[in-house]
Amino acid sequence: MKYTKATNYALHTVLYMIEQNQGEKFSVHVLAKQFQVSVTYLSKILTQLVKAGLVESVSGASGGYTLRKSIETISFMDIIQAIEGNGLLFECGIQQEKGCPIQKVMNDAEIIMEKYLQEKKLFELSSIKRNQK
Asked: Got a GO cellular component term for this one (predicted)?
């Protein structure tokens, strides 16, 4: 399985925002420069994170993007779903009289993976968390 580059940038952007001063507003230009990606591309990713309720967009001269959820609660799955959506990773697509037995195995594996990614919080990777130990 392979996630899109957008998911990669979204995970790194949120982790960066967690590690920086909470409550700070980040301009899309600063974030794009941090990850060496175009402002337009990162803006689209941030828009998806805003729609998912993970990030807040503040307008105006002192505006920017800030985390909307508590840093301890943002999971890998929250970010992945914001970018990739909720569709199945595997779809059998082959018509069979009794259904597709392969689909059940793939669905069960996906449930296990999603549960793991929902339990894993980005905060756990942050320097903030490492410094608390």
From this structure: cytosol
